[in-house]
Amino acid sequence: MGYSVGQVARFAGITVRTLHHYDEIGLLRPSERSAAGYRRYSEPDLDRLQQVLFYRELGFSLEEIAVILDEPGSDPVTHLRRQHELLRRRIGRLEAMAAAVKHAMEARKMGIPLTPEERFEVFGDFDPAQFAEEAEERWGGTDAFEQTRRRTARYTRDDWRAITAEAGEVLQAFAAAFAEGAPADGERAMDVAERHRAHITRWFYDCTYEIHKGLGEMYVDDPRFAANYERVAEGLSHYVREAIHANAARHA
Amino acid sequence: MGYSVGQVARFAGITVRTLHHYDEIGLLRPSERSAAGYRRYSEPDLDRLQQVLFYRELGFSLEEIAVILDEPGSDPVTHLRRQHELLRRRIGRLEAMAAAVKHAMEARKMGIPLTPEERFEVFGDFDPAQFAEEAEERWGGTDAFEQTRRRTARYTRDDWRAITAEAGEVLQAFAAAFAEGAPADGERAMDVAERHRAHITRWFYDCTYEIHKGLGEMYVDDPRFAANYERVAEGLSHYVREAIHANAARHA
DNA sequence: CTGCGGCCTCCCGCTACGTGAGGGTCAATC
DNA sequence: GATTGACCCTCACGTAGCGGGAGGCCGCAG
Asked: Cross-referenced PROSITE patterns, in alphabetical order (chains A, B) (predicted)?
């Protein structure tokens, strides 16, 4: 029993060659082979294929997908939940792009020229380069800046992926605490603030409590950063600033 | 004046190598070079780059993008409009995927097993293979079937792209006529039906009026096909059937 | 026993870049 | 005016994710 390569390919709308490839690289090995060496795919194999295709559609590399699917303690429901979340983010991004296109159309009609930054705002999402440029203007020549430059220069794509993932988690933690009404100067919010500080210290530079407070101010004052928080929840940037200050006071 | 590779790369969130590549293949040549051979990008160059990145994001190959951007009589506004449309489609698809994930979660919770077809429904969008399998069951051994098999075997990806695009246009034409209240047995709807028939004859097999009427029935009776029309507009499948019948009567 | 579709394993090709190597350029600085 | 360091140049080879064909075995229909 089980399904042949051709059948599976037809179900999934992919080619036989693709299945061969996934077998080769070990991403999806059919659980059985016939006496003649034919690949036989079982139901669980189809399950896995579905997951693979989903994550692929969302832009993950095959290697990343293998890691995700093989990490221990990840049941199907977890994957479905995660996929749903990823899809929602992706949709959000595309909607932002659609809005940007509209914006460009308006500007074009009015004859208003766009600045280069405006033009590409939509791409780059979480652009470290842009961040770095900003950072230079603000803190050029400072210790923290030098440290950041030296350290980030050696980071690989995987590192960056891990960093942004971690940053996302912290952001979510802030958002959750905020949404559930935890006070900004309460333990929960302060703990998240501390995680935030640790994150920066770990990946960028020694973030003292003083510097951290400065960052908190910036998250409110600089619309660029504020937007990052405000688009998650209205008022979140202020909440984050309060939490950072409270956390700094706690450790003073 | 103008911008250097590095500056442009930072704006756009891409690498310098990517710009080099686009220069190499002629997709985006900087309009100037400095005396030392440095690339200098002008404002119109940035405009073009923005278009390139948009279409790239939407999954077009670089070659296709070059064709799109260089086709005569395509002004920027046209591109913006098209991009907006493409984005909306893409968003629609992702939303369908999100719905499917929810569906899978429900099924999982209820302990309902999914059939292989159900599992992959979301991918493949307009799956020709699935269509072919269905077709075999229905018309296996018939002339039309043989003809389709022989002809489609030689189609390239570009052909398929053209085919689905054409099919999409016909669908839109039906939808538009329907939405604007044109009667199903009126000239406008019948003309679209005739386009539909021509499309099939051109790409698959000689679609006689008799066969066409059979297809019309199927578009209503078979939920698989009906869904294709109904998700565009409620009642559209019936409308299409009527139009096809009227058109056949007109040519009888 | 002879097709004929489907399956197998190489293996080379393609796209869209990544990633150095080896070497000029340019503005600031010593 | 020489050095330094960021930035630029041109090769040129490497990689991911398959596409597609060659050459050959499998299995059933006629």
From this structure: HTH_MERR_1 (PS00552), HTH_MERR_2 (PS50937)
